[in-house]
Amino acid sequence: MNKFFISLKNSFLRSIQNDKTIIIYSVIIAIIFWFFISITIYPTAPKTIENIKIDFDASLTNSLAEKNNLSIISKSVEEVMIRIEGGRTRIGSLNPEDLVAVVNLNDVSKPETVSLNIEIKNNSGIEFTTLSIYPKTVDVKLDEIVKKSIGISSISAPNATTAPNYKKGTITSDPESVNVQGPKTEIDNIGSCTLTIDSTFENLTSDKNFISTISSIEKEANVNSKIQLFNLNNAEIFLEETNIKIIDTEFNITIPVSLTKEMELKYNLSNIPLGFSEEFIRERLIIDPLKVTLGSRNESLEEINFIEIGTIDLRDLKIDFTTSFEIEEYLKSYENVNNIKSASVTFNNEGLQSKTINYIPASNIKIKNLPSKYDATLITQYLDNIEIIGPENIINNITEKDIIVNVDLLNIKSTGMQEIASVEVTFPSFNNVWAYGKYLVTVDIKDKSESTTAYSTTYSNTNR
Questions:
Q1: Of 322, 350, 378, which residue constitutes the final position of a domain?
Q2: Are residues 158 and 250 in the same domain?
Q3: How confident is the model at residue 454, as a pLDDT?
């Protein structure tokens, strides 16, 4: 052993004779001396630790905020930096994972945004003094998290097209609403929502059923539709700017497809005298609209070419005639594509004129279609104030001699009394002249088998 120390001593003495070796030994001795002085004279030292996470979950647990069903919606920072002072040899080993930052939520009981002081909890067991925290405070937004079902007000499919003569109906979805979740103040501000289908379907001729997938904050894969939320003022809510999440992301969609066909609107003419030109009247009656477009979910629509909307009585056709027909009732079996509820009819009276015939004698009043078992006696002696209408060049020359009044008794069933029967005013020599108004005569009807004479009362004719 003595030989070892003697050898070590001799080696050291030889090494210090070299300048470089002396320098190295000097540095080592200085470091040892500095370390000894530092821990003896300066036992504590400062240290900066960054990236210490704020534990918001721990801060919320069992707090007054949690007891009031509040959740943390957002925060201005999530990490802090601290500067501490402690034992030089002890705090040197501290790292961010040994420490945790917290906030006090025991003074928050309602939805609001608050500025809270940040505190440091030491879980390392190493004592130190906190010199500073940066930042000192954090802004925390708290609110109650709620769920709500929002009805889908409209569904559109701009990329779905139908074949010619087909149309899309009102698109439906199952469910008919979307469930959302988020802060109560934000959820309560939602007024409505719409669904837009981005999928492409071409030349549809029948209903299309499919599953639509919408986007949410957390789910973006295989999205083919878009939900748009609108606030109470009907302004769009952009989800990426809110804390709202869409819970439902799949909907069963039905795009109904209907066959469509353009139908002409037609009317009937009644009480047209024999030989009168119906076409003369139809050319002057103008119907608006002339056609409507109807839709049907079955092929029965192909068998129909027009829609009858009502009847016009020639006796009601005055020179300034106009009328309208409510057509919804006639279209109730079909989809009213244009949503047309009525049609108007006006009369083109260009070149026409009206005139009043003051007297038509009984000789011009003819009874016809009297059943053989009856006898009839005309009580009315004349008709007066008959308004007639026709072309100007004809109407001025017409007199009572050109008029025959027919009394049709085909449907007479009673006897022993007088019958007031409506009459047909005709113009045998003209097919474009007619009488405006309804006129009545009085007729005494008897059964031929009766031997007594029926009581009779005379009625005056009435007209317009």
A1: 350
A2: yes
A3: 40
